[in-house]
Amino acid sequence: MRSRLPLLALVAMAMALPAAAQPAPAGGEAFITLGTMGGPVPSPERSQPANALIQAGRVYLVDAGDGTVQQLAKAGIQLPRVGAVFLSHLHVDHTGGLSAILGLRNQINLRERLTVYGPPGTRELVAGMVASMQPAARVGYGIPGQSWAPPGDTVTVVELTDGAHVQVDDMTVTAVQNTHYDFAPGSPEDRSYKSLALRFDLPGRSIVYTGDTGPSAAVERLAKGADLLVSEMIDMAGTMANVARNSPNMPAPAKQQLEQHLSTHHLTPDAVGQLTARAGAKALVVTHFAAGTPDPARTRDYLAQIRARFAGPVTLANDLDRF
To answer: Nearest-CA neighbor of 93 among 131, 45, 132, 37?
Structure first.
């Protein structure tokens, strides 16, 4: 009769096998542009908007578009190291990866709470994601009698509004309302839906993330003297051409609304340069390329327009760049 190794012996043998090479954990302080493709059209070259702020060994996500978990792995960052998530606004290109973050944390039975900071509506968004996780959490690994953490017990939501200040570990985070939406001030819509720019004051430097915004005096004030400004940017013609290729049968009213949104709720290269110069920021990183960056001539034109307004260092970010 053929002998059978006990399960524990098989596990021990597996543990003794050489492990596959793993990326070294990121150390020190860094702002990593995990994903730099904005807008509703996905790209094979760039992931959706997401960033990782590394400070004193802790990792904080700043937006979490689709593909964030994969981008973290490419950056050598293990998911359990993520201590908090900051959402600038609730458009799905900035939040689509949050469900995977929450679900995979639960799948590995991680009991430490994750705090999600975001604008009004974040609590409802996360509650929906938690509800979608219930069937998988109840079945667990399919082992009778096993205990499993209820998904809602491992996530906390803190909603931020205009002018909010929060202390997170050794950094101060400030939020201001930007101009990605243009609801009338004080209206029910304005109270219910906000898009935020975020400033992270760390022990060693200050980083400002515009989120999605149009020209905004409030964002200029927030970025005053910042060591690093991470700004969105729009290429109207390129973005609309990208949308047309992806959705050639888009109804005319929908196309008109999209054009209105892009032209008033985002920053052109010239506007990015103006914002940076007026704020007196020391360096600029540009992200959120809704049109992609396929054309070197167009990319050079972006830089020329920005540098006509801002004389400091400018970088057009790629996925996984570190600053």
So the answer is: 37
Phi, psi of 291 (to 5 degrees): -95, 0
* Per-residue pLDDT reduced to its tens digit, 176-189: 999 999 899 999 99
Q: Which two tokens stand for residue 160?
A: 């931020």
β-bridge mates for residue 230, sequence order: 209, 285
The 3-class secondary structure across the chain, one letter per residue, is CCCCCCHHHHHHHHHHCCCCCCCCCCCCCEEEEEECCCCCCCCCCCCCCEEEEEECCEEEEEEECCCHHHHHHHCCCCHHHEEEEECCCCCHHHHCCHHHHHHHHHHCCCCCCEEEEECCCHHHHHHHHHHHHHHHHHHCCCCCCCCCCCHHHHEEEEECCCCCEEEECCEEEEEEECCCCCCCCCCHHHHHCCCEEEEEECCCCEEEECCCCCCCHHHHHHCCCCCEEEEEECCHHHHHHHHHHHCCCCCHHHHHHHHHHHHHCCCCHHHHHHHHHHHCCCCEEEEEECCCCCCHHHHHHHHHHHHCCCCCCEEECCCCEEC
Domain residue ranges of the chain, discontinuous segments joined by +: 25-322
pLDDT beneath 50, residues of the chain: 1-27
Vertex 42, ends 39 and 45: CA angle to 5°?
Answer: 115
Q: How many CA atoms lie within 13 A of 311 on its CB side?
A: 1
> Does the domain spanning 25-322 belong to CATH 1.10.1660.10?
no
Burial of 81 (0-12, 13-18, 19+ CB in 10 A): middle
pTM over 0.70: yes
